[in-house]
Each structure stands twice: as structure tokens, then as C-alpha cells.
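Lab notebook: predicted structure, single chain.

Context: the supervisor wants predicted structures on file for every construct in the current expression panel, including those that have not yet been purified. This is the next one on the list. No modifications to the sequence; it matches the entry in the shared construct table.
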Amino acid sequence: MIKKAVGLFVAMLVAGFAVAVFASARDDDPETVMITFRAKAGAETELAQVIADHWATAKKMDLVRVDPHVTVRTKDQGGQPCFIDIFTWRDRDIPDNAPQAIQKIWGDMGRLTETRDGRPGIDIKEVMLASR
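Prediction complete. Output recorded below exactly as produced.
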């Protein structure tokens, strides 16, 4: 009985250590992105909600740094509606290994955006934050 309890305790320690190492490693290589969404005509309101849902989901899943985050609404050179979302992934590997819930939201984003003026409906650029 004691042997099983010790084994269980050691397993819990190893699992806790692995989680701690993974969590700290996620903060070692953050990536700040600026994402431009070119909304399809009539899809602006729905796209704004999907962008907000993406942020809320990513934040709840601890995939992003809370600060800074900003979403702005603007117009492109042709006067068409666009949104720009700027935030920092806790680790640059997260988008390549995104959970299913995030991938589903990305599908919704794709459905609500369009290519314009030779630019993709969703344009993602890595950016650097200016010193604070």
C-alpha cells in the first residue's frame, strides 16, 4: 500500500514538474502579431464578434499575454471595412499547434473575410512592440 502511495506521489511530482516546465517554456519565445481582417460586405458586425470571441477564447485557454491587446476598426484604401487586431501569443509555436476551439474560430474568420486589392482576407504580420 505504501509503495503504491509513494509511486503515485512521485508520478504527481513528475507531472507537476512537466507542467511547470511547459508553462515557463511557453513564455520564453513570445510572438506579437498584427492581424488585418478585410471584412466581406455586410459581415462587419459578425466579424467583430468573432474577433472578440477569438480573444476571449485564447485568453481563457492561457494562449496569449493579456497586455497589450487592441482591436481597431478602419477602412482600407478603397474605403472597405477592415479590422486590425494586435496581441502577443505566449509562445510563437502556439499558432502552429492551436487547439481545436481556436482553429474553429479561424475558420469563421476566413468565412467572413475576402481578398482585396491583391491582399489576403486575413493578413498576419509579426511585429515588435515599441519600448514602453
